[in-house]
Fold each of these.
Amino acid sequence: RVSHYKQSVKDEHAKHASKKSPYIVSIPMQARALMRRRVQIIRGGIAAQVIQLASFVLQAIIMGTVFLRLDDTTITFFSRGGVLFFALLFAALSTMAEIPALFAQRPIVHRQSRAAMYHPFVEGLALTLVDVPITFVTMIIFGVLIYFLVGLQATASQFFIFFLFSFINTITMKAWFRALAAPFKSPAPATAGAGL
């Protein structure tokens, strides 16, 4: 009887999944399923994405019009540096808002891990892979607005260097805040730690 049960468990494993693993599907299959679920969650709560995009657009328009078409003189170096600093800082600090959302889905991740449905690291990987295109679109809109309203150097190479730094900075800070929130049991100390 026990041998029949063990054989049925082995038969249920996916072709590429390790037979010794408690997970019956392989890592790529888990990632695909979790990415699909993450996209469905985002579609279900599309208002949050629209609000985030709107806040980025609004901040870019505000900062762009405050420093509208800066002169190409040395007197505006400090203002240009301020705009670049704001663009990096705003994108980085806006990612801190993810901490409460991570704690909201933590019980689900733990339950699925205990049931050997999905590995927790695959959940994090899927979250990141789905966030990259959304962050890309958000940062390209934010970058185009603020860069060309202010009148920073109007060459493609300079713009894409600015975009590359702001995009990588945003993705890195998302990963940093996710890693910072991981060891905490509640959102309050994690947010306090992130504020340091």
Amino acid sequence: AGQGSGLGEEMLNTIAAADALVAVVRAFEDEASGPADSEADYEATALELLLSDLKKVETRLERVKAQAQRIGGPDKKKLEDEARLMERLKAALEAETPLRYLAYSEDEKRLMRSFQFLTMKPLIVVLNAGEDAAPARALAEKWQAANAERRAALPAPERNDAAPGAQFVTLSGQTEMEIAQLAPEDRAEFLASYGI
């Protein structure tokens, strides 16, 4: 999502089948687009993923509660357990906590598997920097620390320290493209001159 455009329902449905998500965020200024607003672009994308999951949770919660009122026996208990899980997920998402940061029982994992929640997936955020990548690297470090703090703020029994969180990396796409276009002998010389 960039420049005020959202991911869209079709894109959200497409990425739901992915094992992990990669978001590329512009962190350079160019004449056509002007200055980058990397923070706003990242926050908009993260919020869109949260809202997509929240919509799924709210829809499922309504259905489960309605079904639980109509039936009894062991099926009712299963539905009540699922409703409690959906309430927990809803609370986390409303607090803007990605679901990947929560701990789950094996039964809860089984219940959640079919929903393909976007905030359960590992997330890699790539900041596409200009020639001076230092500001983008600082921003990536800031976001990495903020995500670690968000996870650490969860109560220990509810926190999943083993799950991969969001990872933030920086690269210069333009520089990488230029290096790739060099002749092999020039590329080796160029990389050696920078100690790469």
Amino acid sequence: YSRESHSRVRMIVQPACPPLLGASPADRSAPLKPDAKCREALAAVQERLRRDPAGIVGVILAARWPAHVPGSDRTRRHMMFDRNGRGSQASSATLSLGLDETLDLLEATGTRVLIVGAPPAFPFEVPRCLLRTSDGCFVDRSFQAAEREQARVGIADAIRGRSFVRFVDVFEKLCPEQRCSAGSREAPLLADRSHL
């Protein structure tokens, strides 16, 4: 697409780091502290946007959004930290507040935004499952439904009234039926449990 449209595309990825300037997840090795690598990566992106917004007309924000709200288990993903290092339980409100700061910056620089919702998550490694069976691999769409809904609410709150932002719900596109397919051996939809 980049070549066809004569556009430059730059992809910035920091594992387990959602694009939330106003919040960061807990460190995997020290769950009561913010993830320093995530904060550094986000600060670098923020500085780049502030220093030289020219030429950046659009940004695609993608994350495993449901991983940053409470769920049925009690893992590290339930702590989020604000820019001052104050921790709190993650919720749709903390997701929304963290995303608000990102969108405020992008709005100030005149950047259009596409937020991509998370694909279906699977409780198993998709490639392994597809190698073991010819019948396909599926998960019921109710798997992590509460987390998906909380993430959707947090995103909806953050984008309300912002005409420069669009949201695409990938889950609904990939999982229109009661069961979500992981694709086939020839065309898997996911690279692991939750990444396209």
Amino acid sequence: VLHKDVVLKAGTIGLALVLVAGAIQMRGAAYDAAVRVVDAASTGMASAGFGISAIDITGQAVTSEGTILSTLDIPPRTSLLGFDAEAARKRLLALPSIESASIRKAYPDRLIVAVTEKTPVARWTVDGTTYLVDNAGTRLVTVPAEANSDLPLVIGQGAGDDAAVIIRALKLHPLLDKGVVALSRIGDRRWDVLYD
């Protein structure tokens, strides 16, 4: 009788281990099946009129619409119900030019995206590439050299980081500021002011 209890306990433990191992093995298959069901439901909802068919974007001036659309990462036939707006908003905030963003779902088929961009204070040309930079010297976007000619042009290594300081200093002295074509950073220690 004593051996019968040991055999029953060992059998129960063995059965439990087999069930746990089977559940672990089936977990991957169950997950894959769940993903397929969610995808099918999303496609079904898109076909039923809840697919994203219009995207309104407001607030962008320096960030291209194409950059925003690619960052939203909306696959074809995505339903508005299945779209993760918070994840997309976080991707937009990762763009260097975006200060804040909101994404709103307007049922049945419209996505409304509003962004607030960081304010560019200068154009910075370094190694043949021109960027717009903000007060902190962050490279917001790459632009053609002649674009945004209303912004001061700073040139050279380290110029973007210190652009806001020299621009503010020149604004305090209108006679020095008049006719400035560019500000060239030399050796990350001084500025040459280039006049027209």
